[in-house]
Amino acid sequence: MFEHIKGSVISLTPAGIVIEAGDIGYLVHISLTTYSQLHGSEKAKLFLHQVVREDAHVLYGFFEQSERELFRMLISVNGIGANTAIMMLSSHKPDELQHAILTENVGLLKNIKGIGIKTAQRVIIDLKDKIGKIPASDLLFRSGESPVRTEAVAALEMLGFNKKAVEKLVDQVLTEQPAIAVENLIKLALKSF
To answer: Of 78, 99, 122, 150, which residue is the least packed, with the fewest Cβ within 10 Å?
Structure first.
């Protein structure tokens, strides 16, 4: 198994990169997240995941190890192959996917090309506990750092609502509307209870 590759960028597209390392050009499939981090770079280092099939050896590359770890979790779900996992990571940032899984946001997942409602539910069932066991400091998203989230949760708790239910609802709203103002977030939450 390859761990990483480091070399000169020969060509870069939103779906793949050719990296020359040791006078060999390697075609590596990437997500849009990785593409945006590599855009304009002459040199690159990618963390790799190799898929060996009967007809091909395919490399998938990730700018950060945490994205590769999420990719590996996604392909562990029955019905999600490497190409679908890359599509998921290209459709949403890794932190948004983790957040959607933790908050059981089926709607966000099923809107990804190739993911139906049953697959979205399976992803949540299979990965919620795995992602939940990752220490908060290692998660790609840090929902606790959001002052809007903190203020909204505190206000709704003071009004007597259950903390876990409030956090779940607030996180779901913030996933769909990350730039929402605190007042609007609280109003939306109150309408949902």
So the answer is: 78
